[in-house]
Amino acid sequence: MENIAIALHGGAGTIQQESLTPAQDKAYRNALRTAIDRGHSILAEGGSALDAVELAVTILEDSPLFNAGRGAVFTKEGKHEMDAAIMCGRTLEAGAVAGVRNVKNPIILSRSILTNSDHVMLSGYGAEEFALNHGIALAPESYFFDKLRYEQWSEVRDSNIYQLDHTVHHDEKFGTVGAVALDAAGNVAAATSTGGMTNKRYNRIGDSPIIGSGTYANNNTCAVSCTGHGEYFMRAVVAYDISCLIEYKGLTLQQACDEVVMKKLVKFGGEGGLVALAPNGDIAMPFNSEGMYRAMKKGSQTTYVAIYKED
């Protein structure tokens, strides 16, 4: 029981106490707690890290609070294009989807790609055809409709402006969700899911489904799930860079995360954060923004849930 752990995020950005009402604060914390506790229960019952991260991310996808799955933001065309990835640290197998529109839970489709194909990433129509062939649940456009998301899109849909999740004046929130886990067998896994950017065009794809950028897991080093401005995380190859610093330079998990998130990304303007977990059970949740929706639970310890820097 003591050698299991899970951590997750629900997005990072300019998240301050005054930006959320008490009711919103409570709703976010409850959603994070539910996801982390459900994922931890899988581990406590002897389940795999892959199963735990898949379930935790699925729960966050089902919540309209987060920019993934049901809460995905609107594209320039008024549609929803979602990306996701999942990776096994034991085998280095991975599954990912990019630009899918009517898939209820992109992370479940990603897991099916990992399990039932020789591919890593499928996109658009092909990914949706794969979902149909493997019994993955689809959903109509109405399922993804959220009044707040629609209002955000309405403000910018006639312009060439794109927004990172729900930007309000200076307030930026990157709504990607993700989880990392360590199971009793010593295996790590990572999963990430996102709806991308409000008013995005040209089938833009971010870092979340790209193995090594937004998602990575390796039993020899760590598991990482990122959230932030995807273009920067791709250019910095953030998730794999953290793994490399551990493998080749002997840094601890926290040292590697701080080097990439607090130094490398900051130098060229990359904002966001991540959750990471090492095979020894160490957890790191660094972010260089004002806040990050986050939670973790290690062994039989009390569940930790936080939003702001001050938490």
UniProtKB/TrEMBL annotation:
InterPro entries: Ntn_hydrolases_N, Peptidase_T2. It holds the Pfam family Asparaginase_2. CDD domains: Asparaginase_2. The lineage of its organism: Bacteria, Pseudomonadati, Bacteroidota, Cytophagia, Cytophagales. It comes from Pontibacter rugosus. This is Isoaspartyl peptidase/L-asparaginase family protein. It comes from the Bacteria.
